[in-house]
């Protein structure tokens, strides 16, 4: 029946009633009211039954099922944690107790699964429950195997099985959590339907009530109001939530059955009494704040607080409070709906605790790997070192062949260890990406140089293409970019038997703040299928199980590459076809180094720095005195042998205390300090030596198997200037000595001061009108003022006074520029910019800065010690040098004008001339320009030289 017809019939009844006497009219009105009320009641009963059924789905099925599933997750995590504790337990007496807890945890987990059976609501719910059941049974079997292996003494196998089961366990937990979400959605859907039905009830009630009002006026209105009160009471009484009404003074006026169930008080015990009975002492202040908002007509929604049951038990409840207003809109009281969320909060807290336990377990794993790294690297140091020492002795070809294979295998094992450590550091969030000035061209060139021998062995072609728009210098992490490129080139060579490899680097996007650089490594190797490519970047996964046997590898390399690239703000991908090669591409986000104007001033000096620096492979350090602090005899023997090969004199200290004593008694040029030693460790020994010797303290270099960035940071804070990782190699020691020792020994009587010192003092004298006395005075004052600058800047950095350090470095940089020094810029300027941005320099940057400042100070001391200097220009006692210079100028000019590389024979002549005329600024500048390929400036300098020789260019 349509609503329009309904109102027409009502109007007809009213018209008919008007013709009847009062008694009959009242009868008609009463009959009409009765019919109306009966209709409303029937509709409400039908719909309320549906609402009740839907509410039961949430209250009697969804909530218990969620509680059981949450308990299942909790018991599952407890079981894994207890198995892990059993695995790492070292106390034999503790093992039986842990085994009992594991049995208990298994029983609790299985009991939790059984508790869910009667709560299954539909076929999908049953399917999900069976899936969870099967996954948990598989996990239990794996954990039983872990315990069995550990009990039988196969600890490493047990640890590996536990580690490999982690992804499956995480998947199991995800499935359970998806089951929880499904059940929660069922309950939510039922609740939504209940709300919709309740809304329908209200609409129908309103329609019938309007009809009743239209018929019986005030009488029908009164009846409808009474009926509405009954309906409200029915809803209130049927609710599981506590629905309470109170006056503005906090006196309870209504108390539903839900309130009785939640708080334990009957209606008679609460109505007429203060609501404060439910408040703990420390929560009673909340009532005043609540009622202040209610008096202002505000509604308070989902307010979580604590209340007390009749027996004193605290409850966590969620409360919604609304003002009650009379016909005139005046607030006369408050209505409260309270829901008991104690169990939900407990479950939430248990989940948080379980998550915390899992995080602690992950942290423990990272610490375990770090400790294991140290323990493995220590014997590896002996294996690699002793093997190298034997290889350097007289051997038969067969012996040498065996030892070369042993050396190769030990280094392969070390690479595997490094992969595992890198993956662990990334997973634990302990790997940091640096932002330092780097050259993309140099990085690629160094990577190519690294694989030259392997490319020649396989007769593979190699082509490198670098975008001409690539900036000379950008800010990025050279080590991590090299790590990715080296891995991709190494894989390309490994899986390519014929053809070649192509390497590309291009600028994908550039703006004022960011620079997106794209790299590509393409090969003509065995290729990949789509299924293999999809699995390629997952940890511990090889493209094919046979690949591991044929080619070797851990399956971690590409996974590490992916995470490194992501840490650098980029992504990595592969496109490949079987037997058609593969192309790996990755991007990184770098930052522009300097403005274009500044970049154009010094790109070559930085880009070609590696090609201009002196090779350290043949450097000798004969005459240097080294103190070696090392407690293990094998490591002592290896280190002493390596050091003797470098020509140094070695004194050995068995612990930190002896090292400090020897350092105070004898003057050493450098101290190699192990970190972990008995009596006194390397950190304490370093601080003791630095305190006792002060400015006379030689540079101290850490030498340890601890390789995390945190370990290096602690070394720097203790006062060490560099770091050599174990297993040590003679090449690494030589590089370290080149960084730290060059320029630190005192000059003998027949030695010539550093070239830059001579050049600097002459440039300064030229600026001052050839006033050598004034130049000497300025150098003398600079030495006096900045003699302790290295320790001052180090103290500022250690105290986190970054702005003060930046200002001090800026001032020193200006002073050195005025004195004519240039080599400090490439080290000082990037660090100064980092400090101005409130960023802390890395360990390597700080070590380079301190080494450079110390080197410059020594050079200044050399200049200070020189009493007489030959003025700039050509003297009259070097005719042979003049003749050689005149002969080489025509050919040199031709090469410079053509922009071609200067041949070695001409370059060697210039070096000989410079050796004969060490004080000549122009010759020195000419060589610098040639080395930097700045042919235009070289021609200008050559013109100056020719004018001094009386020639015209």
TrEMBL record:
EC number: 2.7.13.3
InterPro entries referenced in this protein's UniProt entry, alphabetically: CheY-like_superfamily, HATPase_C_sf, HATPase_dom, His_kinase_dom, HisK_dim/P_dom, HisK_dim/P_sf, HlyB_4HB_MCP, HPT_dom_sf
PAC domain sequence ranges: 301-353
Subcellular location(s) of the protein: Cell membrane
Catalytic activities: ATP + protein L-histidine = ADP + protein N-phospho-L-histidine
Annotated keywords: ATP-binding, Cell membrane, Coiled coil, Membrane, Nucleotide-binding, Phosphoprotein, Transmembrane, Transmembrane helix, Two-component regulatory system
Gene3D superfamilies: 1.10.287.130, 3.40.50.2300, Histidine kinase-like ATPase, C-terminal domain (3.30.565.10), HPT domain (1.20.120.160), PAS domain (3.30.450.20)
Record domain Response regulatory: where: 625-741
Transmembrane segments: 26-47, 201-221
Residue intervals of the HPt domain: 771-870
PAS domain span: 228-297
Any coiled-coil regions, as ranges: 337-371
4-aspartylphosphate sites (modified residues): 674
Membrane topology designation: Multi-pass membrane protein
KW Coiled coil (keyword) present: yes
Residues annotated with Phosphohistidine modification: 810
Chain ranges of the Histidine kinase domain: 371-592
Highest taxon of source: Bacteria
Keyword Transmembrane helix assigned: yes
NCBIfam families per record: sensory_box
Protein name, UniProt field: histidine kinase
